[in-house]
Amino acid sequence: QQNQTLEALAETLFRQWFIVDAKEDWEEVKLEMLISIGSGKSLKKECFIATGKYPILGANGEIGRTNEFLFDEKLIYTGRVGTLGNVFRIENEKVWLSDNTLVIKPIDYYNFIYFVLKFSKLDNYDVGSTQPLIRQSDIKEIEIKLPASEILTMFENLTNIYFNKIKENSKQIQTLTQLRDTLLPKLM
Predict the structure, then answer these.
(1) Which residues of 141-173 are buried (b: 16+ CB within 10 A; e: fewer)?
(2) What does the pLDDT read at residue 178?
(3) Does the predicted model carry a pTM greater than 0.70?
(4) Burial degree of 102 (CB within 10 A; 0-12, 13-18, 19+)
(5) What burial class does residue 48 get, using C-beta atoms within 10 Å of its C-beta: 0-12 exposed, 13-18 middle, 19+ buried?
(6) Residue/partner pairs of 46-55 with CB below 8 Å, 24 or more apart
(7) Which of 46, 89, 95, 187 lies deepest, with the highest CB count within 10 Å?
(8) What's the confidence (pLDDT) of residue 180?
(9) Burial class (CB in 10 A: 0-12, 13-18, 19+), 126
(10) 75: number of CA atoms within 13 Å, CB side?
(11) Taking the mean position of all CA atoms in its chain, how far away is CA 20?
(12) What is the mean pLDDT of each run of 10 residues along the chain (188 residues)?
């Protein structure tokens, strides 16, 4: 619950600074100037291992586990086909991103790009005929107003405080869950 509140605070800050208080003289740029984008990769069925070390992530989150990883860096991903509109953060974790995802690597301003994508209503870019689909080129073409780098740096520094706390909380939750799962059967 605390993690949701922290992210909501960061989101409120983004909305206030970059939507409500946006200035007319800010440079209008396409998102492709600030990111590199690609797709995840498919994984053979035999590589899906229930007790694998690393998560396999799809458009809705974790879809399995494996002992292989495709990425170990700071990036953002969203659904490419099937479920559109969800935007997820990965911060230097070993993961496998499935071929139904778009992998977005911000050049700078990671938190800013994350919220730009969350506020872009990506499900509105659906071009699929039989199932929902979004293309890399559609994301590259999203136009945004870009403030001065000092403002972006200040936003990154402030929101990093929130997201670092979220990361700490998540580690604690994982540790407590493992302890519970270990101790509970012994108590029974």
Answers:
(1) ebebebbeeebbeebeeebeebbeebeeeeeee
(2) 79
(3) yes
(4) buried
(5) middle
(6) 53/94, 54/94, 54/95, 54/96, 55/95, 55/96
(7) 95
(8) 83
(9) middle
(10) 23
(11) 23
(12) 93 96 95 96 94 94 94 95 92 94 96 96 89 93 95 97 91 82 79
Q: Distance of CA 37 to CAs 10, 73, 95, 104, 133, Å?
A: 24, 14, 17, 5, 15
Position 127, amino acid: V
Tokens of 25: 């003289």
Are 35 and 74 within 8 A, CB to CB?
no
